[in-house]
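[Q] Does anyone have a clean structure-token version of this?
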Amino acid sequence: MRTINDPAQSVMFDPLEKLSPTHLRSFINSPEGLFRAAILAILPAKELAKNFCPTEGAPTKELYSMAGLMLMMEYHDWTVEEAVNAYMWNGKIQLALNIYGASCTLSERTIYRYLKIFVDNDEHLLQKALDDITKTLIELSGINTQQQRVDSTHVFSNMATFGRTRLMGVTIKRFLTQVIRHDPEAYAALDEDLKKRYQPSQGKLFADTAKGKGRGKAKEQNQEEHYRLLRQTVAEDMLHLIGIFESHDRFQSASTFKALVQVFHEQCEIIGDAVQVRKKTGGSVIQNPSDLEATYDGHKGVGYQVQLAETCDVENEVQFITAVIPETAAESDMAAVVPVLEALEKNDLLPTELLADAGYGSDKNIETADEKGVELVSPTKGNADLSAKEETIAESLTLDDFVVDEASEEVVGCPAGHAPESSVHDETTGKTKTVMPQEACSGCAFSGACPIRRVGEKFTLTHTGKERRLACRRREESTEVFRKRYARRSGIEATNSGIKEVTGLRRLRVRGSPRVYMSIWFKVAGWNIRRGAACSRVMEMVRQRLGGGSFGDTLGNFWLRRRVYLECVVISVNFAQKLTA
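[A] Here you go.
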């Protein structure tokens, strides 16, 4: 049976009225005060209620408080035990969640149940919760969202990091554990050497295998050969087990067997009748059978990453994260621009200017952003070190120095002001071929720096629209104006570091993409709540909603209630004395 209390509904006995002025001031000025005043009422409690019968069964926990606790648990980086203790014993958290009295009881099992409900629901529910919180805070703060910046940051899930040999070995061991449990006879029929090889615990797997002998370089070569032979043996074991169990109905649908098959095909290949370990696998492969969605980034390691867009107007009192796109670690930043813009557009938060590093600044992304009315400000690759190339760019001429009709891509004039003999754009190849007059180019003062080249008796220039746009961007990037404009992008690095330290985003307590993504969305929502608590305009709203006005009014109301209470006590005592007289 559902238990759901609207946080906006007033109650006869408000717990806040029982607080002393000092306690009330402390609560109102805290993130928990903001949570109670503006966040709790917009959490998806009604969506949670759909998972319970409205009239039958034991009463649920108050659903707004449970939705709030799931959110707080993530951005405070609590364990389940810590979340239970906060719910039952932390008065500030209880006030934030609008619970008090006998309702403040909770078990760890209940938390796991509600976490499962959140994860099993469509992920759009979690995204909507973050979006609602973000839009509410931006509206209350009144900040400008027209200037934003975007960057990605790496996130480690709660899993071990394996080398290729250990990855394949652990995958085999996990599968054999299931074989022992569900088909002991099939396990007993396996080769004894194979069973012995995978009997040690996961941490000690392959630890007793002989290492290379010798000293110095010879020992390194022996160890390298040893690991190669071991990896080959493990690959052959994988193929052998797949051949035995692929026809067993009991194991065909087992997750451990599917992981065994997938890891084998990602790490190995069959050439003729022999198994060979692939020299390279790329990053989009399984890194741990406990977290099948985690992938590998060559610079940052295994796990996940998250694309973050953040406001960056210098006039804003605080900056909020406006878009969150969780991804696996192998995803390219180049492919993130479109999802980020779509997320911002969906929430009516599209900026006029979006700052990004060179990893986002492809010509295609620039054009896509421009179609949405957004200027993507990003250095071109190969031109990120502006100071080192400034002198070279200044001394040479580029396509940007030519007068080009952007609609037709035809050259109208050269840097010296001469018109071409011909300039023809080929729609099929996207190239424009320009031929300049011989008498104009042969004696031109710019001939040493001009990109026009002599081919036989003709002076020609071939370019594409992309090359022209890149030349224009590189010229702009060499200016001091661009440097000052682009300097604000680096501020998001501090946000990435801060959110990891404050909310535990660096290494999560969970694994698997559904639970990892939920954790990311809620931690970012918590970061925005903390930033909202640092905004004077937002906190003035909190004081109005929770304190009934200014603190002077709040204190006056407190002493008024205290005087009325004492007068009632005096009247009661006098009445009791008259009755006994």
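[Q] Thanks! Anything notable?
[A] DSSP finds 24 helices and 14 strands in the chain.
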